[in-house]
Specification:
The protein is mainly α. It folds into 2 domains: about 45 residues; about 110 residues, Oxo-4-hydroxy-4-carboxy-5-ureidoimidazoline decarboxylase (UraD-like), CATH 1.10.3330. The protein has 9 helices and no strands.
């Protein structure tokens, strides 16, 4: 697959960060790769990127149950993931709690709370929010990257299952 097709196919695996797919294509060239190899190469590309690029990647993610969801501005993958977790069915109280946590988290860390929510529910997500707000910046930066890798893996598996 040439670079243009590869980035078209895999550029959205890491939210609004096609540079990850571009780097992986440079490593693979025209060779085929299975989901496990793509997962590894993409995660490795992120892990070896500059801190600035990693932070840009983290900041490219939307708030959970946030304004972008309400306005219908999420990517298709994010919309599906948040819907599977029931974030599109929040009660008024839950929605307000998500907004409060989103604001507190971004104020403390300077980036959005990230969690692979595909197999979670609202209560689990809110519990993780409360717990992770107690962490320091370095721990949350690393946790955000690990959660992003989980999201990417789940997206790659979903892509493979659609084939």
């Amino acid at each position: 697959m040439d670079a243009t097709d590869f980035v078209a196919a895999y550029g959205g695996v890491y939210e609004h960060s096609p540079w990850v797919a571009e780097r992986v294509h440079k490593l693979l060239g025209e060779r085929q790769a299975d989901t496990d190899l793509l997962t590894h190469l993409m995660a490795d590309s992120v892990d070896n990127a500059s801190v600035e690029m990693q932070l840009e990647l983290i900041r490219a993610h939307p708030d959970l149950a946030g304004k972008a969801q309400v306005a219908g501005q999420l990517t298709l993958d994010s919309t599906e993931e948040q819907s599977r977790a029931g974030l599109d069915q929040c009660t008024t109280e839950e929605f307000e709690l998500f907004q409060t946590h989103n604001s507190a988290y971004k104020e403390k860390f300077g980036f959005p709370f990230i969690k692979a929510v595909r197999d979670s529910n609202r209560a689990e997500i809110l519990e993780a929010f409360a717990s992770r707000l107690q962490n320091d910046y370095d721990a949350e930066f690393e946790t955000a990257l690990q959660e992003i890798h989980k999201i990417a893996r789940l997206r790659l598996v979903a892509m493979e299952n659609r084939k």
